[in-house]
Write a structure and sequence with these properties.
heterodimer, A: about 270 residues, alpha/beta, Rossmann fold, six-stranded mixed sheet, four-stranded antiparallel sheet, B: about 280 residues, 2 domains, 11 helices, globular, translocase (chain B), cell inner membrane (chain B)
C-alpha cells in the first residue's frame, strides 16, 4: 500500500478577484522505503503541496490519502489526532523554526513521545537510542538549540521527526541552509532512514540537491506535476520542456548542461 | 607601485584589480579573519572565490571595495584598483572609485532598492551622480541600461516599484545600476544564490555578455563551486580565512589538490546532477 496518494489536488488562496490557484491537479504517489524528490521553483506550488499534505491548508479539490486514511475532508480535530499518532512528520529548512528555542534538545525530542502517551522513562530511553542514528552525541541533550551549530540543529530536527516512528516524512529544503560537510552528512542519514522503510518526500527548488539521493523525481511546474520518474531518467533524459530547461540550467562541474540557445528556445516554448 | 597611477590604463594590459597577500583583522580581538589572499584580474577576465559563510570571501570583497565593517582593517598586503592603491585613497576618493571603476552586486537585490521610488528612477539617479548627466539624459541612459541587462520592456520596468518585480528582474536592475558608470570591475557576491536555477543561468549569461561586450572584469563569489565553474578563468577556494587552493578553473576542477576542494567536488559527483550527466558525457 502506498504511504501517500495525492490525486488531482487543487489549492486556491485569496478570495474573489484576489483568488489565485497555487496547485492545479497535482498528483503524486509515494511508496514505503523510497525517497521522492519534489522539485519546483518559486511559485510552482511546492510549499503549498507540503502544507496541504500536512493539513495546514485546505485543498479546494482532489484527494489526499495518508497511510490508507483519506484525510481530504479532515477537520482540525481529526488532523490533530493524526499528528499525535506521529505517522506523518516534517522537517523544514530552518531548524530553529521546527525546534522550540526555549526547550532543551532532550525536551524537544521527548515532546512528541510524551504527546503520544509514552511513559517518560521509556521515552528517554528511546530518545537516547535515536541519537547515534542521526550522528549526534549524548552530551548535546541538556543544551538549547541556540547553542548548537546549524548542522547539529538540523540533525536534531530530523531525530525529532523520526522518533515517533513515522511512515512518511515531508522535508522542505532540509539541506539548503547547510554547508557542504553538514549537507553530505544529513543526506547520508536520510539514505539510511530510507533503508529502514520510511518514505521521504524531499522538496527542493534545486534539482541538483536531490539528484543524488532521490529514487524518483517529480517536477512541479505551475501547480502540476509535469514529469515523474526514476531520478536517472528524469535527469539524463527529461521529457517535458520545463524539465529540460531545469536540467539544462543547473550548474554542474562540466559547465551548464545545455547551451544558451537551447535554453532560450525552451523558455520561448514554455511562454508560448 | 604608485607610478602605475600615472599610466593611462587604456594603453596597458595591466590588471584592473590586483590583490596582494591581503590580511584582514578584527580590531577588537586582533583575530585575523582573512589570512593572505592574492590574485590579479585583467580586463575581460573572471576570477571566482568559493567558500562557505565565514570563509572570508565577502570580507575580501568588502576590503577591495573599501567598505569593511567598523572595527575591521586591512592589516597587511595591498589592493590596487586600476593601478590605484586603495589604502592611499581618502574616503571621498574611494567613493569616487566605487561605481565608476569598481562596482558590486549582492545576494538580496530588494534590500538595495528604495521600495517607494520607481526602480528606473533609482538607476537614473546613479547616472546623474556618477556621470553628471542632466535629468532627461539620465532617464535616457537608464532606459538603455535596463535594455542592456535584457529586461524585456525597459519603459515599463522603469516606472515599476521593487515589489512589482521578480527576484531575477530586481537583480537585473541592480546590475544595470552597478554598470551605470561604466566600471571596469564588477564584483558579484552570491548574486545568483537567492534565484531559481533557471533564472540563475540567465543572470550568468548576462554577466558573460557584459564581459565579452565591454571587457568588464568580474569577481564571482559563491558558496557553490559549480556556479563559479560556469564563468571563471581562475578559482580561489577559501576556508576559515585561508585560500586552500588556487589555480585555473579546469585544473582546480579536474586535479584538485586540497582535501576541501575534493569534498566540494565529490559532493557534486555523488549527490548532484553530475552523478548522472558526467557518465552521459564521458
Amino acid at each position: 500500500m502506498s504511504v501517500l496518494e495525492v490525486t488531482g489536488l487543487d489549492v486556491h488562496y485569496g478570495l474573489r478577484r484576489h483568488r489565485r490557484q497555487a496547485l492545479a491537479g497535482a498528483s503524486l504517489t509515494v511508496e514505503p522505503g523510497e525517497i521522492v524528490g519534489l522539485i519546483g521553483e518559486t511559485g510552482s506550488g511546492k510549499s503549498t503541496f507540503a502544507r496541504a499534505v500536512l493539513g495546514l491548508v485546505r485543498p479546494s479539490a482532489g484527494r489526499i490519502v495518508v497511510d490508507g486514511e483519506d484525510v481530504s475532508g479532515h477537520r482540525d480535530r481529526q488532523w490533530r489526532a493524526l499528528r499525535r499518532r506521529g505517522v506523518l512528520q516534517y522537517v523544514f529548512q530552518d531548524p530553529l523554526r521546527s525546534l522550540d528555542p526555549d526547550l532543551t534538545i532532550a525536551d524537544s525530542l521527548l515532546e512528541p513521545l510524551l504527546l503520544k502517551g509514552i511513559p517518560r522513562v521509556e521515552a528517554v530511553e528511546r530518545a537516547r537510542g535515536y541519537l547515534p542514528r542521526v550522528r549526534l552525541d549524548e552530551e548535546l541533550l541538556p543544551r538549547l538549540p541556540g547553542e548548537l551549530s546549524g548542522g547539529q540543529r538540523q540533525r536534531v530536527a530530523v531525530a525529532r521527526a523520526l522518533i515517533t516512528e513515522p511512515k512518511l516524512v515531508i522535508l522542505d529544503e532540509p539541506v539548503s541552509a547547510l554547508d557542504a560537510a553538514n549537507r553530505v552528512q544529513v543526506l547520508e542519514i536520510l539514505k539510511d532512514l530510507r533503508d529502514t522503510g520510511i518514505a521521504l518526500v524531499f522538496i527542493s527548488h534545486d534539482l541538483g540537491s536531490v539528484a543524488g539521493i532521490a529514487d524518483r523525481v517529480a517536477v512541479l511546474y505551475q501547480g502540476s506535476v509535469v514529469e515523474v520518474g526514476p531520478a536517472r531518467d528524469v535527469i539524463a533524459a527529461p521529457e517535458h520542456p520545463y524539465t529540460k530547461l531545469l536540467v539544462g540550467s543547473a550548474p554542474t562541474l562540466r559547465m551548464a548542461a545545455a547551451g544558451r540557445a537551447e535554453r532560450e528556445a525552451l523558455r520561448a516554448l514554455l511562454n508560448a | 607601485m604608485t607610478a602605475l597611477t600615472e599610466i593611462p590604463v587604456e594603453t596597458t594590459v595591466d590588471p584592473v584589480l590586483a590583490v596582494r597577500d591581503v590580511r584582514i583583522r578584527g580590531q577588537v580581538d586582533g583575530r585575523e579573519i582573512v589570512k593572505g589572499v592574492s590574485f590579479t584580474l585583467a580586463p575581460g577576465k573572471v576570477v571566482g572565490i568559493v567558500g562557505e559563510s565565514g570563509s572570508g570571501k565577502t570580507m575580501t570583497c568588502r576590503a577591495v571595495l573599501g567598505i569593511l565593517p567598523p572595527r575591521f582593517e586591512v592589516a597587511d598586503g595591498a589592493i590596487h584598483v586600476a593601478g590605484q592603491d586603495v589604502s592611499a585613497l581618502s574616503q571621498a576618493e574611494l567613493t569616487e572609485l566605487r561605481g565608476s571603476t569598481i562596482s558590486a552586486v549582492f545576494q538580496d537585490p530588494a534590500s538595495y532598492l528604495n521600495p517607494s521610488i520607481p526602480v528606473g528612477k533609482q538607476v537614473a539617479e546613479v547616472v546623474k551622480v556618477k556621470k553628471g548627466f542632466g535629468r532627461r539624459a539620465a532617464r535616457q541612459r537608464a532606459l538603455e541600461l535596463l535594455a542592456a541587462v535584457r529586461l524585456r520592456d525597459p519603459e515599463l520596468v522603469y516606472g515599476q516599484y521593487a515589489h512589482e518585480l521578480s527576484g531575477g528582474m530586481l537583480q537585473r536592475v541592480l546590475i544595470a545600476a552597478a554598470i551605470a558608470a561604466d566600471p571596469r570591475v564588477l564584483i558579484a557576491d552570491e548574486a545568483t544564490t537567492a534565484l531559481d536555477v533557471t533564472v540563475q543561468a540567465e543572470i550568468l549569461d548576462l554577466l558573460a555578455d557584459l564581459r565579452d561586450d565591454s571587457g568588464l572584469a568580474l569577481v564571482v563569489v559563491s558558496h557553490d563551486l559549480a556556479v563559479v565553474a560556469q564563468l571563471c578563468d581562475e578559482v580561489l577556494v577559501m576556508r576559515d580565512g585561508e585560500v586552500v587552493e588556487q589555480g585555473p578553473t579546469s585544473r582546480v576542477l579536474y586535479q584538485p589538490e586540497h582535501e576541501y576542494t575534493r569534498l566540494l567536488i565529490s559532493e557534486h559527483e555523488q549527490y548532484g546532477l553530475d552523478r548522472f550527466l558526467a557518465r552521459e558525457g564521458s
